[in-house]
Write a structure and sequence with these properties.
mainly alpha; disordered C terminus
């Protein structure tokens, strides 16, 4: 019998193990039984910490956010554009670090107040720039929903960066759509070069926010080099 002392089973250890296993099996294969097997415990032991799988997903999403913001300081001199660019780019990078990361994050509820400091500061920047609070909420949530939806679709094609899912061959798609030349050519724009596609879309979202709300605060500073 092994006498090696194992670390205590707690929420943090379960969530960390689940995030590691997620990259191996994806969301569909991430069962409580599989997580328990990785932890070398019986599945019922997990119910002391999480009442169901959604409760675990909530903790996983919260931990993803904790890791995303760990060691980063908010810059109070950011313009509203700079903050939305930084926060959405950071979110996309974080989600791409996990297989099905966007699916785990989508619809989950944070298990604590880890997100509130960043949320408060972003809303402060937006309202100081001339947005009403309602407009600031719409601006931040719309850009957030864009990022979340984009990464969900991106990971449907590339579950992890550089790992392309079978069935998304652009050349084969074009061959099958030979009678529809524009749709055939569109495949290269839809299923390739996600970085450029994301940045162009985010720029469109921010331009639309400015056009619609016309914030009256100080003009944004020049982009950082």
């Amino acid at each position: 019998m092994s006498t090696e002392k194992r670390p205590p089973l707690d929420r943090a250890r379960v969530a960390d193990t689940a995030l590691k296993l997620l990259n191996e099996v994806g969301l569909d294969g991430l069962t409580l039984r599989a997580i328990a097997r990785e932890l070398d415990v019986k599945a019922p032991a997990l119910y002391w910490h999480f009442k169901d799988k959604q409760a675990l997903l909530d903790e996983m999403a919260t931990e993803m956010f904790r890791r995303m913001v760990a060691g980063t300081e908010l810059d109070p001199s950011d313009t509203w554009r700079e903050r939305l660019l930084k926060s959405n780019r950071g979110l996309r990078t974080a989600l791409l670090g996990y297989r099905d990361g966007a699916k785990v994050y989508s619809g989950s509820r944070f298990t604590g107040l880890v997100h509130v400091e960043q949320m408060e500061e972003t809303l402060r920047l937006c309202t100081a720039a001339g947005f009403t609070l309602a407009q600031a909420v719409r601006a931040t949530s719309t850009s957030y929903f864009y990022t979340l939806g984009f990464v969900t679709e991106e990971q449907g094609v590339e579950p992890l960066p550089g790992e392309r899912r079978e069935g998304f061959d652009v050349a084969e798609r074009a061959r099958l759509m030979d009678g529809f030349p524009l749709s055939a050519a569109a495949g290269a724009e839809i299923f390739q070069d996600f970085e450029r596609h994301y940045e162009e879309g985010l720029a469109l979202v921010l331009a639309g926010i400015e056009k619609q709300y016309r914030p009256t605060g100080p003009a944004p500073s020049a982009p950082h080099a």
